[in-house]
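idk why but the lab printer keeps eating my pages so im just putting this in chat instead. protein + uridine-diphosphate-N-acetylglucosamine:
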Amino acid sequence: METFAIEGGIPLSGELRVQGAKNAALPILAATVLAGGSYIIHDVPHLLDIKVMLEILSSLGATTSHNEKTVHIDTRNIDSSYVPRDLMGRMRSSIFLMGPLIGRFGEVTLSRPGGCAIGERRIDLHLKGLQALGVEIIEEDGLIFCRGNHLKGSQIFLDYPSVGATENIMMAAVKAEGTTIIQNAAREPEIIDLQNFLNVLGAKIHGAGTETITIDGVSNLEATEYTIIPDRIVAGTMLLSALITGGSVTLTNVNPSHMMALIDAVQQCGVEIEFDHDIIKTSSNKPWQCTNRILTSPYPGFPTDMQAQMMSFLSLAEGCSMLQETVFDARFKHVNALNRLGADILVDYNTAFIRGVPRLYGDVVEATDLRAGAALVLAGLAAEGQTIVKEIYHIDRGYDKIDEQLTCLGANIKRMDLPE
Ligand code: UD1
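predcted complex ->
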């Protein structure tokens, strides 16, 4: 069982290049199924979820390799539209295969993606969107059979701007006959990246980044080379890592315009942040202030994927902060562990009340999910003494060797293999 041992209290400083975005890379890798061909995708981080996605593509018949930050995929020999149940169960993002396989073969068989620690993660909007394009869906014995040889463009309203549903519908609609309009679409930057990738293949999509996305179906697409956008959540995590230790950091390969909700929240706490089009600089001016205005919501709101890390930061703020989670229904699992480290946090339904404390103290804690794990690493970096974070495979799902990234900034964090 791998764990992190962190000696806290060292102010981080230095410069870090931020990795490519996991949440952009996953749907883009799935979308390579749409057009059989040879792809080169740059700035793909080494993460467990990416490894699983490449395993799924291989199980369908693709050849894949991931060297340095570049993935080579050849999807010409894909001859299966069945995603094995064990692979579906290993990560939620396996659902991204649905749209591309329907688009290429007119059919796909898969199971519901694995359950998730952060709350109920339904796929009704994915299914509703595909049905609107003419896909027939039957669920039997835990399998979902989708058939749709003649996809037809349609007008689809999402009653919630789901990121995954928007992406799956876009990927299926690319090959549909006629025009598809998605209303109340999610507006995340990763959706713009998917649009840009698909358009380089030859798709005709516009509107990503707004609430209405229009997809004019095409019959031919061609494989291509592409570079993934920077990861705004990793950038935010590194920013808060430096701030929580009273340090300073310069982040490169970032897009600050994708991070304005976080930048604004940190500024509300009295921290100064300098940013230009692809660089962010900040240094901590302890103590920072509390804030009562953070509410997670779909982009451009405050990202739910930064909520846990922000809570660690607010644990050391002056005064009482309030943080509301509206996107997922079980995303406060880090609270007990933070309190164990000395934080003073109370939860009432979807609202956390965080009374700032002067310091945190090292202890043994367990990561319960990806961002909760990141929040514990942040708290450990700030705490007095040693913090052991267990179950760090959750963290490796989204951060490309977070220990090495933090070590570059001067942190004392060691990956250790402990007996279970
Ligand atoms: C994506 C991100 C994830 C992020 C989330 C919200 C990827 C790979 N993952 O996840 O990191 O936390 O966006 O920003 O991009 N919902 C339904 N029905 C559906 C689909 C979703 O009710 O068919 C609900 C979910 O239960 C959840 C909310 O919508 O409460 C948001 O989910 P969604 O936007 O779909 O998130 P993901 O695409 O799963």
